[in-house]
Sequence to fold (227 residues):
Amino acid sequence: GGIITQTPKFLIGQEGQKLTLKCQQNFNHDTMYWYRQDSGKGLRLIYYSITENDLQKGDLSEGYDASREKKSSFSLTVTSAQKNEMAVFLCASSMGLGAETLYFGSGTRLTVL
Amino acid sequence: GEQVEQRPPHLSVREGDSAVIICTYTDPNSYYFFWYKQEPGAGLQLLMKVFSSTEINEGQGFTVLLNKKDKQLSLNLTAAHPGDSAVYFCAVRDSGGSNAKLTFGKGTKLSVKS
Fold:
């Protein structure tokens, strides 16, 4: 089996700060995703990458940048942290699209002071 | 775009009782359906995935029903136990090959009391 590792588990930043979240997978999956999870709102897609060097915007991309440095890693940058951005950010990967299962990391909890 | 409504948001049952979570979707082209389980402090784990062609799918201790006519997907836990306590999410995707977007429901927090 494989694993998705998200770092850090907890991230505390100041309002206006630029913050980076990292994700690594060893499934050798092509597609990777960043989701934001807010209590009572489900998961919302921020960015995804179908393959290395690909980047696609999701529904919630404003205020974020993403980078697929290599097949196994996908990072997310909060360009200017805001207090209403406090949430859990989940990284996931899948072999492809369609029927493919998403495998999730355990998340990065962001707190903005 | 696709909208997925999941209910109830919270569900509390006693050990041995059944528990039912329902998702209603809007896009008639939806083809792949997923149920995920999230335990505290963890990511989501796949419980079951179903395809548009199959209406009843059984897992260990649960059944997933797909009613395409009413655009409804349900998760039925037949005899809940405390280890089932978690947040459950449904997710829906259409058959378009280039569409990576899974639309998630807002989740149901299930508490099973012994």
Notes: The two ends of chain A are 38 Å apart (CA to CA). The CA atoms of residues 38 and 87 of chain A lie 5 Å apart.
